[in-house]
Amino acid sequence: MKNLLGLFLLHLLLGACQPSTDSPVSVFIEESLQEDLKDGRLLLIFSTNHEAEPRFGISDNVGTNQVFGMDFENYQAGESLVFDPESFGYPIESLADIPEGEYTVQAFIQKYETFTRSDGHVVKLPMDQGEGRQWARAPKNIYSTPKKITWEKGAELSLTLDQIIPSVTEPEDTPYIKHIKIKSEKLSEFWGRDMYLGAHVLLPEGFEENPNQYYPLMIYHGHFPSDFGGFRTSPPDPNLGEDDYSARFGIYGYEKMQQQEAYDFYQQWISPDFKRFLVIEIQHANPYYDDSYAVNSANLGPYGDAITYELIPYIEKEFRGIGEGWARFLYGGSTGGWEALAVQVFYPDEYNGCFAACPDPIDFRAYTSINLYEDKNAYFKEGNFRKTPRPGHRNYLGHVNAMVIDMNHRELALGGEKSRSGDQFDIWQAVYSPVGEDGYPKPIWDKYTGEIDSEVAAYWRENFDLRYIMERDWATLGPKLEGKIRIYCGDMDNYYLNNAVYLTEEFLEKTENPFYAGEVAYGDRAEHCWNGDPNLPNYITRLRYNTMYLDKIAERLQQTAPPSFNQNNWTLTKN
Questions:
Q1: Across 456-463, average pLDDT
Q2: Would the pTM count as exceeding 0.85?
Q3: Domain containing 35: what range?
Q4: What is the secondary structure of 30-90 as a DSSP string?
Q5: What is the dihedral sign for C-alpha 321, 323, 328, 334?
Q6: What is the average per-residue pLDDT within 349-373?
Q7: Concatenated DSSP letters for 257-318?
Q8: Selected residue with higher pLDDT from 248 and 270
Q9: β-strands 101-116, 66-72: how paired?
Q10: Both 419 and 546 in a single domain?
């Protein structure tokens, strides 16, 4: 561990604007790739895997590649970039400490664009290019062809950025799946430029043949979808074998299994006795992340209002949704689980129920393994004579493979100190924080040391701590949320998300006038992202979000739908 003086000195270095002139690394840019380059972040990546591109190997795992990052501004065509040797790195912090040896190296530039927002701030951020705000795959970003080198102390390294990521190919409509994209007036006003929302829409069987039928709407929240997933009109590819391995689930043949599940869903979808409804997956990638968390935010703008009052009414008008709150339901897992609950809480009259699986922290007293209101440091539990790193990721046995400090230092190397990494802790900060004086999200904690800002934590509590908000406002919220809240989580969630669910359940079970009348359930030894089925493994149930809650939705519709609603096939006929 560094001493306090070392921490202070390194913190100063992180904020340095000018790179050192005695850097051993020079980065050149091919002339044809210089034209629209102005501001961005330069990454230098080392890998011991000589078969794969280094840019795809940066992770929280112990086998991660090494990355260093530095921002640059006002690039002028014809210039080369000198890599600042004092730039922060992950997992090794200093370029001078890279061991001698053979590596495959790669330079990469994530381009920034300038936004003049309606709040008066001018910020430079990486704009989504249709890929879902994934820096390593974002069109227009440029990189060098991987180069195998022998790294020695005092040696010089020269890299040339000679590759550019091509544009994304948009998915095509099919008889069942339609794709829409609309300009959001609310978001465009906030960001000072045209901003768009999209969605993939799954149409019910018989949609074209029954023009007088109107349908309930199921909103499947989650990360950026390139197309509608889990729906396939043909059987699995017969050429698929059983030899593909899923490291996440530890099983073989998972691709074939996924295709079979998608085809089974299609067979259900077209069967005569299956309920008829619309399903949508929303595209709301933004300059900070692959989605917006579907709420209004000081830094991201009014995404909650834009989705609820612009996008969803447009979809319902275009595809004959019923268009009333009683006929809309929310579900999703992880990010989507938080969104499902948050949208239900913030727009209680506009939706009729949420199914929140493995939600991101819904009580900030258990912000993963951190209590934002009592802890002083996010990275360490500190005593008088020692400090212990806080765990960030575990398996179902409780074995830890990443600490909170590791996860945040990776983001710090990739995106710097202004929440620009496009990753998890940075997007939470961007959504939940007030705007800082520089126009970027005000940090919840020092990204290097982990020291928590209690004033920012108080802002988070009042605006985005879902358990706190429900408890604070239950007198008015309770009657609108009665029977609408269902939460599911594994009790060995990899990111400790079950702890916030425990605290939320404790509040919900004590509610009165009214009692919340919902459900909270846990999967025994289940990891992220358990979604409510105790009889099947997670690698199956995660493929069944669009069908697994239908019985519970049917119960809700019987309780709340008007008499004209057809409970047998879930349609409302209009002449």
A1: 98
A2: yes
A3: 17-164
A4: -GGG-TT--EEEEEEEEES-SSS-GGG---SSTTPPEEEEEEE-S--TT--EE--TTS-EE
A5: positive
A6: 98
A7: HHHHHHHHHHHHHHSTTS---EEEEEE--BTTBSS-TTSEETTTEEHHHHIIIIIHHHHHHH
A8: 270
A9: unpaired
A10: no
